[in-house]
Amino acid sequence: MLLPCSKKLLVDLIQNFVYTLYKEQLLNAYALFNVERINNMLLQFFRTLTSGAQLDSDYLLTLMVSLVALAIVLLCCLPVHEFAHAWMATKLGDQTPRLSGRLTLNPFVHLDLWGTVMILLVGIGYAKPVQVNPRNMRVGSKKGLALTALAGPVSNIILSFILLLISKILLYSFGNSDALLIFIIIAVFEVAATVNVTLAAFNLLPLPPLDGFNILQMFLPQEALEFVSRYHTYIRYALLAMVFFGWFTGPITWLGNLFFSGINWLANLPFVLLG
Question: Of these residues, 24, 36, 82, 226, which one is catalytic?
Answer without folding.
Answer: 82
